Amino acid sequence: MFSTRSRILSPLFVALTLAGCGGGDDANNAPAPTSNTTINGVAMAGPISGQVCAYALSNTGTVGATALACDDTTPGTGAYSLTIADYVGEVILAATGTYIDEATGQTITLNALNALRTITGWEVAGGAFNAAITPLTEATIRSALAAGGGNLTEANFNTALLNMATALGLTPADAADAFDTLVETLPALTGANTGALSYAALLDLVSTAQSQYCTGNTGCTLFDYLDQVSTFLGSQAGMTQFSQAMQTAYTSWHAAQANAPYVCSYAGGAFTCAPNSGGDTGGNTGGNTGGNTGGNTGGATGSYNLNLLVSAMGTTTPIQITEVPKPNTQDEFCTSALELAQGQANVPGATWTMNSCSFDGTHGVIAATVDITSPIVMSIPYSVDYTYAAR
Fold it and tell me: Could you report the per-residue pLDDT of 124-146, keeping only the tens digit for each?
């Protein structure tokens, strides 16, 4: 199992305590901490070229009129990164701009009245979070709004998200699992991250399903389709209809995937993908049994330099550790973070909570909180940015 806990623990904890204590100043005289929340994500139907903005969302579903923060997306990937200062509460994200519809090749425009949206957690404050903005998250929000009579609440969103993941055959254990799959996982068109490739492939399939739904109706738009999907999510019968429509779309879609970066299957109602390691399309005919486990069985490999950026309470501390193994998967990476957490929990007077964890093969981000009870009492939200560089 991948682990660099013993080599990371000491410098990491020193960096955190120095940041949290202001380098040794009297904690009783320290000013109130500044809490910065970082949201990293991808806006994709195809990759969206435009802007993502974050807005406050009240617990009754009211959206703030003024953006908390905005960022331009990266062309070709839809990636964005936002930093929100001194805010505690719910956040809703909206993506506007243009993208190329993967099924039709047409350029689609998203504006303030018709944006794609998502929600990043509840009661965010400090740390780093992932948030995918996709047609699937937008349909989920529309379903939650319908269930709440126009109010977007945590309970309605979680129910709609669980229904969405279930109807897609993603077999979520619960709403938190559905959130991990459809919000915290960031879709990508390239790379070897199975979850990211699978999500991008699923969005490509959704474009085909939309095209089939709109056949013969020249005025039909993405949002007409998403309204129908949101209606489907409101009942078991509707979820079955949605699942069947996706299966029908898959029959047309899979034949065009010979050169795609993923090999996918929709066998038995479960959509799974793995990296395409040679253009073999056999898995796209419904017989691929590897699914999401296909590149996750390796173990840590190679010798790498690990560059860490520890950010806590407005201070960023760089740390470099040489000759460490690199995890192959997000599971291995996050498991190593848990081991690190257990090590920090053994430091007298400190307990550790991991809030989020992501990894794309060479770059990872962990958001966590350290609670210190001795010799002073304080709570330090922080994030650690991991970059592995081959030696």
Answer: 777 889 999 999 999 999 999 99
